[in-house]
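Predict the holo structure. Ligand: flavin-adenine dinucleotide.
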Amino acid sequence: MTAAMPRKLRVAVVGGGPGGLFFARLLARRAPWHEIAVFEQNHAGATYGFGVTLAGPAQDRLRTADPEAVDRLAAAMVFSDEQMINLDGERILLRYGAKSGAIARLELLQILEDLCREHGIVVAHERRITSPSDLLDFDLVVGADGANSVVRGLMAEQLGLRTRTLGNRFAWYGVAKALNPNGLSFKHQDGGRFIGHYYAYTDAMSTFVAECDEATWESTLAHLPDAERRKRIERIFEEELEGAPLVENKSVWRQFQALTTTRWHAGNAVLLGDALRVAHFSIGSGTRLAMDDALALCQALEACEDNVAAALERYVATRKPTRDLFTAATVRSFDWYEDIESAMRLGVVAFTRDFLTRTGRVDDNRLRDYVPDFYREHIAPLQGSLNREERP
Ligand SMILES: Cc1cc2nc3c(=O)[nH]c(=O)nc-3n(C[C@H](O)[C@H](O)[C@H](O)COP(=O)(O)OP(=O)(O)OC[C@H]3O[C@@H](n4cnc5c(N)ncnc54)[C@H](O)[C@@H]3O)c2cc1C
């Protein structure tokens, strides 16, 4: 008796971001007989944004699936467990119970691309997919093409696309300096409310995401050209930036589009990462969510012996419950930022507690492990009075 030949698939991965590359790598590692093509619109060495963070527990989970990949990524990260909360000059230094790693987005992509190449997958750069005719010859099409997914657009009707546009505006800048510790500053200035999210991702570079609410935008930045907006943010956050200028990389001020779909796949095409549900930067998890999706899809294919239709159903059944929890947490997080005016009326301790518990995933009891010093110094002794301090 001869053993059954493994099923051979022709797989198109649209998008060479963390989700698409990790999926291609995992699939090739498990089933080297598949033909896998990765299409990426950018040329090699180009991407948007600066550094991203990957929480420690997420790394541990991904490491069990692909220890080599996660170890190589971790070797290129800087780790921190600190974050300075600054509310109009009142500061609290948070020390988290677990460390997060930060890495340049470009370096992360290059490491994942190298890992793909080791399995014979060469990413086709400067290859933008624009129509269904680009994808006819494949048994499986993976839409890993990010927030503005073309694959999702091609199937929008079948997927039941829903969009919510947030009022807050943000821009993703960098700083040629390691800003230590990581921080989150909330400032009343120029008659508005401004937020700076920042963290070092090498010993010479930091990410700086600037944000303001809608009313602030209308009364200040909306009327300025891009270069003036950058200068205004440099002035407002001069202390945090230690006087350094902001660096741009497609750093356009925009509104976040919260996109969801009721279905995750149609025919032989399926979505993962930001193409599926865009992660908001305030939960700092979009990279690992995309990589977790990639892992779930790969595991579903394995469990279904590469039967595509069965695997796509299984992918949804196994991954959607976790994704739904994150989506709910994401909505609570960006809604908190959308109403930052109310939160900024609190004192710094109540404000920090409000911030830490905003997603509903962490309550006062979990703060004990999540931010032990803050819990011991501020929450345990004041819990009764904090409970009585209502938002105005
Ligand atoms: C301001 C900001 C800060 C963030 N900070 C963090 C953070 O600290 N930590 C974190 O985990 N996440 C962060 N994120 C989110 C994170 O960047 C995304 O969630 C993550 O990159 C999603 O990965 P992905 O692989 O799904 O998509 P992407 O990384 O967007 O990759 C999609 C790829 O597809 C390519 N592409 C698109 N269309 C086509 C096409 N038609 N044909 C071919 N190629 C195409 C794109 O060029 C891109 O390379 C942040 C996001 C923003 C906006």
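The mean pLDDT is 93. The longest strand covers residues 90-104.
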